[in-house]
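Anyone able to model this chain together with flavin-adenine dinucleotide?
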Amino acid sequence: MATKATTAAKASAAKAGSAAKAAAGKAVQAARAAQAARATGTTKAKAGASGPSDYDAIVVGGGHNGLVAAAYLARSGARTLVLEGRHKTGGAATTEAPWPDAPDFKVTRLSYVMSLLPPTIINDLQLERHGYKIYPMGPYYQAFPEGGSIKLYADDAKRNHEEVSRWSKKDADAMPRWDAWLAGLADVLGPLLLTVPPNLGSRKPRDLEQTLRLAWRHRGLDVRTVADVTRLMTMSIADLLDDWFESPQVKGALAVNGVIGTWAGPYEPGTAYVMAHHSIGDVGDGHLGNWGFAEGGMGAVSDAIARAARMAGAEIRTDAPVGRILLENGRAAGVELANGQRLTAKVVVTSLHPRTAFLDHVGRANLPDDFVTDIEHWKTRSGVVKINLALSELPDFTADPGTNLQEHHTGSVEMAPTMPYIEQAFLDARDGRAATRPFSDGVIPTAFDQTLCPEGYHIMSLFTQWVPADWNSQPHTEELQAYADRMIDCYNEVAPNFKSSIIHTDIVGPYQMEHDYGLIGGNIFHGELSLEQLFHMRPAPGFADYRTPVPGLYYASSATHAGGGVCGIPGMQAAKAALADRRASLRRK
Ligand SMILES: Cc1cc2nc3c(=O)[nH]c(=O)nc-3n(C[C@H](O)[C@H](O)[C@H](O)COP(=O)(O)OP(=O)(O)OC[C@H]3O[C@@H](n4cnc5c(N)ncnc54)[C@H](O)[C@@H]3O)c2cc1C
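re: yes, here you go
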């Protein structure tokens, strides 16, 4: 996942900008908090015309987005409650100890690396104060079954040139141009992540104004840049890389980000955009597109956000699954828990998968037909299997020998040697069987983070693809075990000590992702990042502004624009939409 895309100078300018913004933000924070507290109505007496509400705001789901929404709402003065169905918060950003007989071994069970959380949120919620700490990853590394290896660095053009030259001099020369090209696109796409998509096609004055604003902001784009963005949005990652590079090894390396979490092989249109989505983040080290390990695993990120939310006054309840969203005169009025308890609030923010949030919790009868159809048609496949391993020693690669910690252990340790290899893994799954030779984005967070397991051991996380899209409906336990064994064999071909070094294995397939974590269809982002599900279409046309057809109900899941990934943007935007509406309503009154 460690593709890089810009210069340190540009990134440090961006960082300086956000630091200045943070300082300015502090200065007005007190005034804003007082104003917002008035706007949201912080006392029971003010809470509702038909009687006092239990809370000002209820957030359904304690994944990282729900927690971000709660933190922003609570900071504004709203009495905020988070209801999480599982025994712990974090959702797909969770650190767990999956082996009862080895409780000291912890894995970052689903998501595994950080990049997309913007400095705005880190600063607003003071996450570093609450324990958010990132180790920037080392290079992308692929050892090839036929011998040799390649490393690609996030920000070292000289070493990249040396590495790529070993496979193709032409590709080595093309690399700086590719990086500059991606950096240019990141300049366009990066700010879009924080943009609320306009309601394209609507003729309402407010929607037209927002559309025009967006057009005006991009008035500086020239014909070439628009063409490049068009290519990125419509091409396959394979075709795009064919235009730039010749070496199968280099193309395999650069294709990884194009298929992460995607129900599509590298030859499918739209996978070029998926690559860009994974290449425009910045872990705060100044290298756009770089990724990092959260100390304590991804659960530590959620914990830091939860601490920020609690510190701001939010209440968080776990083991509190919500059964439905209560409506009163067509407006959101609260929730009913699965145990029948009812809790009321003027504002409800849901951060669940769209099928659960809307079809199950709101109910088809309470939603416009078009919206129901859009959510029913929502594409939510992945075919992802997460394999977490405890190792007695580091992989000893034939191409780069040694079990001592070396640079190639510190980044992504891939099994994506060529484009045809990746494609075949997808074709197997599309034909209805788990990949014979799966694709894997592997990482060893314990190369930096000593908190996850006892000294001398390591944790390795393999994000693998693909199994058939319908494996969310049955556990497929034995087949998953066989699939994991094949995955391990693939690594063993390039690092012959690998298999014998494994002391514990944890396999999480699509069924478990759906049933234990609420990731319907096993999709890692609450919905595919396919072109028809991006920007103003995410999660449905007309409702990409974090609002929903139900007044008072806001939507903060990864199925909105800027999701997926652990970026917190949907949570922040949904809270901001709720607060803005409340202010507008008070002004009208
Ligand atoms: C295997 C895997 C690997 C990934 N790798 C990465 C990665 O490395 N980097 C990255 O940035 N992103 C990664 N992602 C994607 C990222 O983790 C998700 O997009 C993100 O965590 C989703 O956050 P969320 O808050 O929107 O939803 P979720 O995390 O799904 O949170 C929703 C919460 O709602 C709870 N819930 C469900 N039903 C109910 C109910 N009825 N009542 C109350 N609560 C309920 C759930 O338990 C959950 O806690 C990965 C995802 C997966 C699955």
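The first helix runs from residue 8 to 40.
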